[in-house]
Amino acid sequence: MAKIYVELAMQWSDAYNEAIQCYTNIIRNRDGGTHLSGLRSALTGGVNRYAKSRNLLKNVDKLSGDDVREGIAVVISVKHPDPSFSSQTKDKLVSNEVAGIVESIVNEKLAEHFEENPSVAKNCH
User: Fold this and answer.
1) Which residues face 79 on adjacent strands?
2) Cα–Cα distances in Å, from 65 out to 9, 42, 44, 114, 117?
3) pLDDT at position 39, please?
4) What letter would DSSP give residue 85?
5) Fewer CB atoms < 10 Å away: N or C end of the chain?
6) Is the distance from CB of 17 to CB of 67 less than 8 angstroms?
7) What is the rounded distance in angstroms from the CA atom of residue 7 to the CA atom of residue 54?
8) Are 5 and 78 in contact (CB under 8 A)?
9) Could you tell me if 110 and 54 are in contact, meaning their C-beta atoms sit under 8 angstroms apart?
C-alpha cells in the first residue's frame, strides 16, 4: 500500500480568526477537504482532552471548535499517491482515508507538544 505523508505547521496568535491553508501534492485546496476535517477534529478534541485532564475548564464542559481555532494559523500539506477531489479544479480533497490519518497524527503530536509546553496549552483556548 502506498504511503500518505502529512506535513503541518501551526501557531496560535492573538488574532480572532483562523487562517488555515490546505494543500495536496503541492496543489492548494481552497475549500479544504478531508485533511481539514481531520485537523479540525483533532484540534478540538486534543485541546479539550488536555484542558479537562488539567482542570482548565471552569464554566464550560468543553470548548467549541471555533473557540479552539480562534487565532490559529495552519498550513497543512498532504502527499497522496492517488488523491480524489470534488472537481477538476481540485479545490477540495475528498479522499476519505486522509481525515483519519491527519486526525491521528495531529492528536499524537499535539498531546506531545502540550506535555512538553504546558504554557502553550493553557493559552490556546
Assistant:
1) 5
2) 18, 10, 5, 18, 21
3) 99
4) B
5) N
6) no
7) 28
8) yes
9) no
Q: Which CA distances in Å does 54 have to 4, 44, 83?
A: 33, 16, 39
Taking 50 as the pLDDT cut, the residues of the chain under it are none
CA distance 106 to 91: 22
The H or E element containing residue 77 is: strand 72-79
Question: Length of the chain in residues, anyone?
Answer: 125
Cell of 34: 478531508
| Beta strand 19-24 pairing with 27-28 | antiparallel
| Distance between CA atoms of residues 82 and 88, nearest Å | 14
Residue 90 in grid coordinates? 481540485
Q: In this predicted structure, what is the pLDDT of residue 125?
A: 56
Q: Nearest-CA neighbor of 53 among 115, 120, 123, 119?
A: 115
